[in-house]
Structure formats: structure tokens, C-alpha cells
Amino acid sequence: MVVKLNSEVLEELSDFLIQLKLEDFAEFSPVLKTSSIGQHIRHILELYECLLTQYEFGIVCYDDRKRDKMLETDVNQAIAKIKGIQSSIQCPDKEILLKMSAGSDFETIRSSYFRELWYNLEHCIHHQAIIKIACNSLAYISLPASFGVAKSTIDYVKSLESSNN
Question: What domain of life (predicted)?
Fold first, then answer.
């Protein structure tokens, strides 16, 4: 289930990027002021990339990101990266050590691949919500109602609607 949900939210991201004009992707958003939509996309994708490239070693450190400028300035690179992530996300669950920076020291905690996939899903949705705000001024963009909304919120709203009928 977690693999399918991640693939779906990444597909929403890809569908969004196909609509987006290059200047609205790469330049600082007038709404966000200090960042671009592309920077948010890069950040999302690089966390997935960390999980997938470090999976085999069993130690994941999200601080070890590439911070690839091409992913935030070239929408086609970002779309290609999404497709690559979607094609390689189907890995068996296993224990993973999560390595985190704590100032000048590092801390490690136990996690699992599926738990980190869930984290990446929620992280992606969180950034989609920020991107959605930036898109309010872009009349040509069409986003699904689920874009930037947690799956638990979608399920909750559906349960309220069905109980009112």
C-alpha cells in the first residue's frame, strides 16, 4: 500500500509539472518570496533519492543530498527523476538505520524502508501544499483536490460525507 500511495502522489506531482511554465518552475515565486517551486520539487525528489540510493547499505542520511540545481531549474529533469523514482521504489521492507545530524554530532535511530517511504509520502504532500499556495496566482494550473492534502484527511472528509448521507 505505501508503495502505491507514493507512486500516486509522485504521479500527481508529474502531472502538475507537465502544466507548469518554465519561468514559474525555476524563478522565485512571488507568493513564496524566498524560494521557487523548483526548489521545493528538488527537495522532495532528493529525499526520495537518498532513501533509494542508500537503501542497499541500510543506513539513510537525508542530510547527504546532492542539491542538484538541474532538478530545480529544468522541469524535464524533474519529471524524469520522478519517473525513475517510481520505477525503483518497489523494494522489500527491511530495517534501516536513520542517521541524523545533531549539530556537529550524528545520531542514529532504527527505522524501516516502509516507514521511511511513509515519511517521504507525508513530506511530499507537505511540500505539495506549499506549492499549491504558490499556484493560487497561476490561473492556467489545474490541480486535483487531493494535491497537497494528507491521505488521512481525504479519508476523514469522505467518512463525514458518507455519514451525512
Answer: Bacteria
